[in-house]
Amino acid sequence: MSNNLIGGFFNRLSASTKYIFGCMVVYGENNNNGITGFFMVRGQDYAPAFDVAPDWESYSYTKLDSSNEQDQKFVNNMLAWDEPVVVDGESKEIADGKVCK
Q1: Suppose 16 and one of 36, 46, 49, 80 were both cysteines; which one would form an S-S bond, judging by CB atoms 3.0 to 4.6 Å apart?
Q2: What pLDDT tens digit does each residue of the chain (101 aa) get?
Q3: Strands (E), the chain
Q4: What are the alphabetically sorted keywords of the record (predicted)?
């Protein structure tokens, strides 16, 4: 069901596909999972690209720094799904995900 939430969110973002590219993944197991991911957004302000989706405020957004090693590793993992996601100091396996392009 969490992966369906991602798919629906991406469908509602279809008006902004010229301005964004990203990937969201579901981590954890059934009845104990979460969603995380990253987006590259044209420009410095992300809100105009996401406010076309009514549920965009359900997610929290943090600007990543491309010179930060941890942020680079996070983005690479979101694209490759090779390593578990660390959430609140706990490592959780990636179960599924989708790419928004």
Answers
A1: 49
A2: 899 999 999 999 999 999 999 999 999 988 889 999 999 999 999 999 999 999 999 999 999 999 999 999 999 999 999 999 998 889 999 999 999 98
A3: 20-29, 32-41, 85-87, 90-92, 94-100
A4: Elongation factor, Protein biosynthesis
